[in-house]
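Support request, priority: normal
Reporter: lab tech (M.K.)
Component: structure prediction queue

Hi team, I submitted a job for Diacylglycerol kinase from Deinococcus malanensis yesterday, and the status page still shows it as pending. I've pasted the exact input below so you can check whether something in the sequence is tripping the parser. The sequence length should be 126 residues. Please let me know if I need to resubmit or if it's stuck on your end.
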Amino acid sequence: MRSDGSALSLKRWWRSAGFAWDGVRHVYRTQANFRIELWAALLALACTWWLNAPAAPVILSCALVLGLELLNTAVEAVVDLASPAVHPLARVAKDAAAAAVLVASVGALGVGLVVLLPPLLGRLGG
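Reply from support: The job had stalled in the queue. We restarted it manually and it finished. Here are the results:
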């Protein structure tokens, strides 16, 4: 599809944002892991607010996990389109994309423990 004008066009940006939200809605509807990760992110953000903890690391960690889950879904769709039959390289691509989400999730858990656990223990103990 050709570009319909300047990169600074609000109309063009709004149209592109609509396509992006279509992708988010599709992934939310079709991917259970994305729904779980989204609700976990909202819970982490609520805890961050309740504990008055630094929000930036939590927000960035949540965005990383959700963004990688979106990319994982895109990789799976493209691999399925390009290689409908089982192929060892298709499996590598899908497994590596899933591993990226796993690594980010473990990192986000670490961030959550470092950022949220101390103020939580302070609230529970004090």
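The mean pLDDT is 94. The two ends are 60 Å apart (CA to CA). Let us know if anything else looks off. Ticket resolved.
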